[in-house]
Design brief:
3-stranded antiparallel beta sheet, single chain, 6 strands, 141 residues, alpha+beta, elongated, GMP Synthetase, Chain A, domain 3, 4 helices, 2 domains
C-alpha cells in the first residue's frame, strides 16, 4: 500500500508560499507558508498534519485493539500536541503528547491502560516517529 501527497513552493522561505495536495483530495492546493508554520498565519503546516495523522492513527489502532478484545468503544477522542524546537540551529520535532478521552463500557482500567499503551507503541505513525511520544488518558464510566 502506498499513499501520496505533494507540495509546490514558490519564492523564498519567508515571503514565499506553497500548496499541499493529497491523492484523496482532502488536501487540494491547501495553502501553507512561513507564517502558517512559524507564526499564526492562515493555512496549514507540516507539523499540524503530522499531529493530526498521529492522533488519527493512534485512535484507530486503539479502537481495533479494544474491539478485538471484546470492548468496542463508544467514543475515542485524541488530541496530539506536537512540540518543535530549535536544536543546534535546526528546527526539530522533539515530542508529541497524545491526550485521549475514551468512553468504553465494561473495560477495567488495567486492561484499558494495557491496550492504550500497545496502541501508542505500535500504531504505524508512532513506529515512524523518532520523537518522544507521551500519553495521558481518561476513561469515562
Amino acid at each position: 500500500m502506498k499513499r501520496t501527497g505533494s507540495a509546490i513552493w514558490t519564492g523564498d522561505l519567508q515571503t514565499g508560499k506553497g500548496e499541499l495536495t493529497s491523492a484523496s483530495g482532502v488536501l487540494s492546493n491547501t495553502p501553507y507558508s512561513f507564517t502558517s508554520r512559524f507564526e499564526n498565519g492562515k493555512g496549514t503546516n507540516p507539523e499540524e498534519l503530522i499531529a493530526a495523522a498521529h492522533a488519527g492513527c493512534f485512535t484507530m489502532a486503539l479502537s481495533a485493539r479494544l474491539s478485538k478484545t471484546g470492548y468496542p468503544p463508544e467514543k475515542l477522542s485524541t488530541q496530539a500536541t506536537l512540540t518543535m524546537e530549535q536544536i543546534s540551529g535546526n528546527w526539530t520535532i522533539t515530542a508529541i503528547h497524545l491526550e485521549l478521552n475514551a468512553k468504553v463500557p465494561k473495560v477495567d482500567k488495567s486492561k484499558f491502560d494495557e491496550l492504550v499503551a500497545d496502541a501508542k507503541a505500535n500504531c504505524p505513525v508512532s513506529r515512524l516517529l523518532k520523537a518522544e511520544i507521551t500519553l495521558s488518558s481518561n476513561l469515562e464510566k
